[in-house]
Amino acid sequence: MSADRVSRVEDFIRREISTIILNQVNDIRFKDFNITAVRCSSDLSSAKIFYKQINFNKQEPISALALKKFTSLVRSKLAKSITMKRVPTLTFFEDQALDNYSKITGLLDSIND
Length: 113
Description:
three-stranded mixed β-sheet; GMP Synthetase, Chain A, domain 3; single chain; 19% strand; 113 residues; 3 helices; alpha+beta
C-alpha cells in the first residue's frame, strides 16, 4: 500500500474519531480526549490512536474496561463513516510525547546551567 494512502487514512481516522468524541460520545470521561496522532499499519488492518487528556486535574486514570468499551463504540461509529472494506482494529495509547519533551528540555537546561 502506498505511504500516501496510509497517511490520508490516518488523517481521516484522526478527524473522524475527534468528531465522534465531540458529537456522539456521552461519557464525560472521554470528552476531554484530544486525539494527537494515528498510526496505521501498512495494510490498514490496525490503527494505533494516540490521545492526550486535556483536563489535567483528573485524579483517576481511565480503567481498562472503560477504554475497551469506548474503543468498540468508536470503532462501530467509525464503520458508518468510513468507505473502506474493513475498519481497522483500534488501539488507544496515551500520548507521552509532551511529557518526554518536557523531561528532555529539563535535562538539557540542567546541563547548560
